[in-house]
């Protein structure tokens, strides 16, 4: 069977694409690593380090004002660049645990994940949580152990922690020569070479081919003590370490590990080149009609994120779409499956954080931004030809709740617009009480409330008042003949934005009590 011209083009373009998310605990250096990858890709000329805030050189991937002030990522950015024949899409995710739901949705658009670990702190709480999401999705995980230029844990202890805490085996692709003040380079096990600091300022890196780790050159570089330690470590890894098994890597059972220091560019290029050769190309996506192959000629994709006011001057909304199959072309007409109508995609954009270009074509694995006049929701599927509905992205139960009111009643219109847009972004969940029609907000972490207040004020000119409620979690209620009067003690019945019944509970006891009272009802922690 001969493949059409479009089919051949799709095979070629899919093969060269790599779409991945970077996950980590806050402060592990994720924004810095992202910057350095972009630097190698030629996408930026000067990496703006997070530490250099006073120089007004903010990180390219942190575009929101509150992120610049605090030095944290609270939204997921999308960046694209070319490197040695590959088209790379990086999904930079919020490290802050209060935004784990945004991260989860972003991971649904990735084909693999890069897990960043601080060499001094090891596996931290947020890393554990995000790793579990990757594990559930069965996506390959590549590990970058960062900050080798500072005093940290023994590399073997870090590998053991990966296995004990996360339950994943590892294969070190390179190995550090010394650490902290003694750190002078890494030995690349796959390419049999050493990567070294060069010059007094340590800003240049040199690569030196060697015959093996016992090479005399390595001894001269490392000095007798570090050389002996390096040889012992590598001999042990050769004998007792896990071999590199790509089947296990792609199944998410074995993680290739890279050591380096992102802030010094150390080990970053080696990581990037190895990663691109090993990471999977865009995979088939699950839909209600079965798996959709990326090389299927009809275009399809799904919206995994909506962001309002990316350009404050234009007060715009952008829907981020992952292309799943076929070829996207600017101006094409597609079926908006949920709305049941044809729409024209006339202003598609690709991103380097806040810098955007109009995109003419895109292929499976690419992330494009669509101008959103208010027609998209998270999870929406777009397709050509047959209607394709990709598996829905789940809505998780919030853990903190506040009643929200607008301080100036004359600003109600702006308040409603801000509330609607930030809800559709997934920043917050909105619930309405039954009877009084009070508005309650639900979030995963306190920082989301702060970002909500900040953005309502900065982007919509509205001051809001938040009054904390005692509820600790929400459960979606699936039952017939719901009586609001039965949920009054330590609980409250509300409705979500889709008019589903939701019960807010103050504690576990109240939930257990409700489950005993209504055995025929279902109390779900994810929206139905």
Largest sheet: 8 strands, antiparallel
> Percent of residues in beta strands?
25-35%
CATH architectural label of the largest domain: 3-Layer(aba) Sandwich
CATH topology of the largest domain, by name, is Rossmann fold
Q: What's the CATH H-level homologous superfamily of the largest domain?
A: P-loop containing nucleotide triphosphate hydrolases
Considering DSSP H and I runs of 4 or more, what fraction of the residues is helical? 25-40%
Number of domains: 3
Summarize the model shown.
The chain is of the alpha+beta class and 528 residues long. The protein has three domains: 17-178 and 242-278, 3-Layer(aba) Sandwich (Rossmann fold), CATH 3.40.50; 285-383, Rossmann fold, CATH 3.40.50.300; 400-524, Alpha-Beta Plaits (2-Layer Sandwich).
Describe this structure as you would to a colleague.
This protein has an eight-stranded antiparallel beta sheet with strand order 27-24-26-25-29-30-28-31. Strand 25 and strand 26 (439-443) form a beta hairpin. The longest helix is centred in the middle third of the chain and has 25 residues, at 216-240. Helix 4 runs parallel beside helix 5 and helix 10 (412-425) crosses helix 11 (446-460). The chain contains twelve helices and 31 strands. By secondary structure, it is of the alpha+beta class. The chain folds into three domains: 17-178 and 242-278, Rossmann fold; 285-383, P-loop containing nucleotide triphosphate hydrolases (Rossmann fold); 400-524, Alpha-Beta Plaits (2-Layer Sandwich).
């Amino acid at each position: 069977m001969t493949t059409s011209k479009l089919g051949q083009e799709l095979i070629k373009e899919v093969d060269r694409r790599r779409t991945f998310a970077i996950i980590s605990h806050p402060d592990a250096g994720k924004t810095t690593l992202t910057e350095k990858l972009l630097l190698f890709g030629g996408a930026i000329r000067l990496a703006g380090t997070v530490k250099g805030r006073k120089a007004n050189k903010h990180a390219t991937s942190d575009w929101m004002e509150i992120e610049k002030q605090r030095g944290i990522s609270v939204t997921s950015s999308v960046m694209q660049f070319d490197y040695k024949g590959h088209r790379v899409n990086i999904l930079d995710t919020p490290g802050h645990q209060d935004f784990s739901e945004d991260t989860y949705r972003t991971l649904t658009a990735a084909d693999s994940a890069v897990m960043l670990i601080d060499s001094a702190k090891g596996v931290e709480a947020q890393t554990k949580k995000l790793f579990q999401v990757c594990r559930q999705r069965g996506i390959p995980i590549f590990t970058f152990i960062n900050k080798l230029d500072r005093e940290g844990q023994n590399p073997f202890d870090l590998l053991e922690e990966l296995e004990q805490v996360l339950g994943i085996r590892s294969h070190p692709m390179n190995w550090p020569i010394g650490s902290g003040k003694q750190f002078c380079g890494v030995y690349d096990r796959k390419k049999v070479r050493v990567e070294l600091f060069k010059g007094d300022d340590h800003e240049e890196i040199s690569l030196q081919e060697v015959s093996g780790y016992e090479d005399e050159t390595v001894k001269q570089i490392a000095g007798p003590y570090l050389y002996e330690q390096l040889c012992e470590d590598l001999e042990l890894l050769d004998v007792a370490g896990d071999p590199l098994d790509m089947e296990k890597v792609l199944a998410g059972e074995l993680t290739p590990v890279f050591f380096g220091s992102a802030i010094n560019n150390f080990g970053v290029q080696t990581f990037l080149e190895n990663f691109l050769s090993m990471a999977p190309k865009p995979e088939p996506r699950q839909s209600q009609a079965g798996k959709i192959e990326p090389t299927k000629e009809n275009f399809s994709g799904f919206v995994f994120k909506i962001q309002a006011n990316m350009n404050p001057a234009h007060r715009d909304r952008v829907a981020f779409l992952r292309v799943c199959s076929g070829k996207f072309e600017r101006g094409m007409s597609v079926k908006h499956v949920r709305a049941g109508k044809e729409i024209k995609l006339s202003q598609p954009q690709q991103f380097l954080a806040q810098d955007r270009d109009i995109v003419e074509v895109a292929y499976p694995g690419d992330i494009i931004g669509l101008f959103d006049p208010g027609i998209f929701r998270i999870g929406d599927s777009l397709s050509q030809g047959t209607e394709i509905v990709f598996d829905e992205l789940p809505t998780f139960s919030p853990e903190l709740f506040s009643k929200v009111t607008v301080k100036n009643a004359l600003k109600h219109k702006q308040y409603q617009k801000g509330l609607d847009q930030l809800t559709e972004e997934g920043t917050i969940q909105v619930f309405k009480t039954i009877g009084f029609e009070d508005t309650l907000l639900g979030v995963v972490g306190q920082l989301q409330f702060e970002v909500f207040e900040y953005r309502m004020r900065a982007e919509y000119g509205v001051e809001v008042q938040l009054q904390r409620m005692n509820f600790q979690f929400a459960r979606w209620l699936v039952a017939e003949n719901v009586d609001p009067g039965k949920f009054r003690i330590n609980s409250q019945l509300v409705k979500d934005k889709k008019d589903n019944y939701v019960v807010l509970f103050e504690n576990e006891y109240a939930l257990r009590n409700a489950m005993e009272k209504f055995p025929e009802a279902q109390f779900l922690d994810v929206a139905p």
